[in-house]
Write a structure and sequence with these properties.
α1 (20-52) runs antiparallel to α4 and α2 packs across α4. The chain has helices spanning 20-52, 56-84, 86-100, 103-117, 121-152, 162-172, 187-210, 215-237, 251-281, 286-303, 307-314, 316-336, 343-369, 377-405, 409-431, 447-452, 457-460, and strands at residues 10-11, 180-181. The protein folds into 2 domains: 18-176 and 240-460, Up-down Bundle (Growth Hormone, Chain: A); 186-239. The protein has a two-stranded antiparallel sheet. The chain contains 17 helices and 2 strands. With 463 residues, the protein is mainly α.
């Protein structure tokens, strides 16, 4: 069991007023390049398949190879952000991302950067809404940009990070230094997390081609289960866990992680399924498929700037529950329409799923950041985004298996979308238990209390 002595002191550099805007702009660009990379790949999948000559399983690994590594490193990246400071971790992540797509370091550190730059909960929630615009812009232009670049070569989609990354680094130089604490690296936790996520994803993908009873599939699931047990044990007893289990004693943290997982199952799984459907079953080009996704993405872009203001008036809980319910409705409608449905109607129905972006993610992210101590914002962000990435990886793995193993593509698509709708509805029901953090929730109690599970004012009022 972790002891009080394991908590390292938090080193907080002097604040420099006037630099919060630079931190916000850098975080927006960071979120933009991460989302853009994920979106453009989905549109290019049929072109990749035609060039490399692989089937559905190969395309699943094209997407999940990136997503899985992203998720596996995210937990350590979140803890790293708290240990070396969000500004330094974000800078390193941007530099590495431009060279080698090290996105896992950027996501949690960008959220922690906002948490440190905006200590006031109301201003922080508004900053999160602006931060989410980066993803909305990337989601809006990504499908079309991916289609255009695919006309040249699908390889061109991997060279679009450099300009945005360079600007983000310039902006980051003007941001103030972030608090940090000196603690050791959780090698056992990181290793077991990689094995657990890798085994689970491999088993889910290969089950589509080989069946659930295939020896390699069963072996993968056994390895995943054993590695997960080691991971939980290491987090409960380790000296410096990268995912302190005490965080989950706060109700908002547990719900936020579950909501993030469920949201990405639908929001990430839909483009994977529909991109293949529109190009392989309906005969659209990569550019045509990208245009079909445009209304879904544009509605998110239009509403995201107002999500914080709407949450202030209606409450984050109502927005999150309503957004997930609308998303589930859109997914179910897409699953039930006839095969000959016009593409314009499919695009209109996908707008319901697009509404989930501004209604769900900015409010739940704001609730999460306001529900944990400031010096654990990077760790909490890492846990939250790991849940999101695992949701995306499993969606691609399971939906790909359903597409390959349900007899016809149309039937596999319908089952996949209905599964995503059910997951979104379940998350909407769970999100009804979200609570608005009180004014002391972010700053009350030392880190030791959160890690060891000792009750603090911050955690007590969120239970």
């Amino acid at each position: 069991m972790t002891t009080l002595a394991s908590a390292a002191p938090v080193i907080t550099p002097p604040r420099r007023p006037g630099h919060a805007g630079a931190a916000l702009a850098a975080a927006v660009l960071g979120f933009f390049v991460i989302t853009l990379d994920a979106v453009v790949v989905n549109v290019a999948l049929p072109s990749i398949r035609a060039d490399l000559g692989d089937g559905i399983t190969g395309l699943q690994w094209v997407v999940d190879g990136y997503t899985l590594l992203f998720a596996a490193v995210m937990l350590s990246a979140g803890a790293l952000s708290d240990r070396v400071g969000a500004r330094r971790a974000f800078s390193a992540g941007i530099g590495l991302f431009v060279l080698a797509s090290a996105a896992a370091v950027i996501m949690p550190s960008s959220m922690a950067l906002l948490g440190h730059a905006y200590p006031d909960p109301v201003r922080r929630a508004r900053a999160v809404a602006v931060w989410a615009i980066g993803a909305s812009v990337a989601s809006s232009c990504g499908p079309v940009l991916g289609g255009v670049l695919t006309l040249v070569s699908w390889r061109a989609i991997f060279y679009i990070n450099v300009p945005a990354g360079a600007v983000a680094l310039l902006l980051l130089a003007r941001a103030e230094r972030s608090p940090h604490r000196k603690v050791g690296f959780d090698w056992v936790g990181q290793g077991s997390a990689v094995l657990a996520m890798g085994g689970l994803t491999y088993g889910a993908i290969e089950a589509g081609a080989a069946g659930l009873t295939a020896p390699r599939v069963l072996t993968a699931f056994i390895v995943a289960a054993a590695a997960f047990a080691v991971f939980v044990l290491s987090q409960a007893r380790g000296a410096h866990p990268m995912m302190p289990l005490g965080l989950f004693r706060a109700r908002n943290v547990s719900i936020a992680v579950a909501v993030g997982f469920a949201f990405i199952v639908g929001y990430f799984g839909l483009p994977f399924v529909m991109s293949l459907y529109l190009q392989q079953q309906r005969g659209l080009s990569a550019l045509g498929a990208g245009v079909a996704f445009l209304p879904m993405m544009l509605i998110g872009l239009a509403l995201t700037p107002f999500s914080a203001r709407i949450a202030e008036r209606a409450g984050a809980r109502l927005l999150v529950c309503g957004g997930l319910a609308v998303m589930a409705l859109g997914l179910a409608a897409l699953a039930m329409v006839p095969a000959a449905t016009p593409v314009w109607l499919l695009a209109a129905l996908m707008m319901l799923v697009g509404l989930g972006g501004p209604l769900v993610m900015p409010p739940v992210t704001g609730v999460l950041l306001n529900s944990v101590p400031a010096h654990l914002s990077g760790t909490a962000s890492g846990v939250f985004n790991t849940g999101r990435q695992v949701g995306g990886a499993l969606a691609v793995a399971v939906f790909g298996a359903l597409l390959a193993g349900q007899g016809t593509f149309q039937h596999g698509m319908r089952v996949s979308l209905l599964v995503a709708a059910a997951v979104a509805l379940a998350a909407a029901a769970g999100a009804a238990a979200l609570r608005t953090p009180g004014p002391t929730a972010r700053d009350a109690g030392p880190v030791a209390d959160v890690v060891t599970g000792r009750e603090t004012t911050a955690l007590a009022e969120l239970r």
